[in-house]
Design a protein that fits this description.
Spore Coat Polysaccharide Biosynthesis Protein SpsA, Chain A; UDP N-Acetylglucosamine Acyltransferase, domain 1; seven-stranded mixed sheet; 9 helices; elongated; nucleotide-binding; ATP binding; transferase; glycogen metabolism; ADP-Glc_PPase
């Protein structure tokens, strides 16, 4: 049966899991959830998933939060920055709450969906798209839905090929010649394939709803999609298919991966092609004055965002909104997050400087073979009041 694309788009609800604490990002997530961490100068990590939704024609999005949600809630607001504030569209922040049976915190990805069944039922979708809020990528979810429908699938899992030597770090999908998933291995010691789960799923809502309700009326074991729900579907003989994705995708859950993705983001030839007007990346942007580059400044192969004041040298780096770099300072292969102030004669290399941090005059932030991190509002040394 042919289904009109507009019908498909309105029939699928996106649920973004954005409650991760992001402990591997250390100081950067001490005060904010991982999806709210700044990226690329003017974005936050969750912007990429939200932008994918609106570019894919998905009009209704639920954002499931938990850890330190205030910055994320403020950033998303009513969804207007992504066009999710129309009559027939919207974004809803979904936070944990105490229920009659005493449940409060989300204990896993599937449990987070279970806790929000009332919201999903209110939206009454035919399909539920489950997404992560902490990946950097561009993906057309409508194309994934088309394959899901064509395969008469009960569940479709997006997969990406990874080097076989790295496959043991991921949930690996083993498939037959028709891309039907026959086996799921969670971080296998000896992987049989290199098809890694991206943590992106399309479920037929009626079936998933029944699975979750049955589980939580008995033993409540369906906590996680990878560990519990997918194996349950396979054991039950459900139609579970893999959707192959071959574009740029980065899980920025560690300091090294966040720094690597940031360095890849610099330059006109980055794989994300951020200047593609047919698939724009949207964000809530602060209103800042134009950046100002003094006669003492030297800038090469770098991204400089609104509100920046630069009197030093910047090379292969990202200066986010309202960053100051004073005279004599040198920034190289680093990410300076919004509102940070870099004093005079400072050397920063291979580092990530958190939001609103203050780096005093003459400081040196560089450690060979390691990415240095300065946390949110952290103060290093004593800063001069003069330029």
């Amino acid at each position: 049966m042919d289904v009109h694309p507009l019908y498909m788009r309105t029939e699928m609800l996106a649920m973004i899991l954005a409650g991760g604490q992001g402990t591997r990002l250390g100081k950067l997530t001490k005060s904010i959830a991982k999806p709210a961490v700044p990226f690329g100068g003017r974005y936050r990590i969750i912007d990429f998933t939200l932008s994918n939704c609106i570019n894919s024609g998905i009009k209704n999005v639920g954002v499931v939060t938990q850890y330190q949600p205030l910055a994320l809630n403020n950033h998303i607001g009513n969804g207007s920055s992504w066009g999710l504030d129309g009559i027939d569209s919207g974004v809803t922040i979904l936070q944990p709450y105490s229920s009659s049976d005493g449940e409060k915190w989300f204990e896993g990805t599937a449990h987070a969906i279970y806790q929000n069944i009332a919201y999903i039922d209110q939206m009454d979708p035919q399909y539920v798209l489950v997404l992560s809020g902490d990946h950097i990528y561009k993906m057309n979810y409508e194309e994934m839905l088309e394959e899901h429908i064509a395969n008469n699938a009960s569940l479709t899992v997006a997969v990406i090929e990874v080097p076989l030597k790295d496959a043991s770090r991921f949930g690996i999908m083993n498939t037959d010649e028709n891309d039907r998933i026959t086996e799921f291995d969670e971080k296998p010691a000896e992987p049989k394939s290199n098809l890694a789960s991206m943590g992106i799923y399309i479920f037929n809502w009626g079936r998933l709803r029944n699975v979750l309700l049955n589980s939580y009326s008995k033993d409540g074991q369906m906590l996680d999609f990878g560990k519990h729900v997918i194996p349950n579907y396979l054991e039950a003989g459900e139609n579970v298919y893999a959707y192959h994705f071959d574009g740029y995708w980065k899980d920025v859950g560690t300091i090294d991966s966040l720094w690597e993705a940031s360095m890849e983001f610099i330059g006109l030839e980055n794989e994300l092609n951020i200047r593609d007007k047919s698939w724009r990346m949207f964000s809530k942007n602060t209103i800042s004055p134009p950046h100002f580059i003094t006669e003492t400044a030297s800038i090469s192969n770098s991204l400089i965002v609104d509100g920046c004041y630069v009197a030093g040298t910047v090379k292969d780096s990202i200066l986010s909104t309202d960053v100051q770099v004073k005279v004599g300072s040198r920034i190289e292969s680093s990410v300076i997050m919004p509102g940070a102030t870099i004093g005079k004669n400072v050397t920063i290399k291979n580092a990530i400087i958190g939001e609103e941090a203050i780096i005093g005059d003459n400081a040196v932030i560089y450690t060979e073979n390691e990415i240095e991190v300065i946390g949110y509002s952290e103060v290093i040394g004593v800063q001069s009041d003069e330029d």
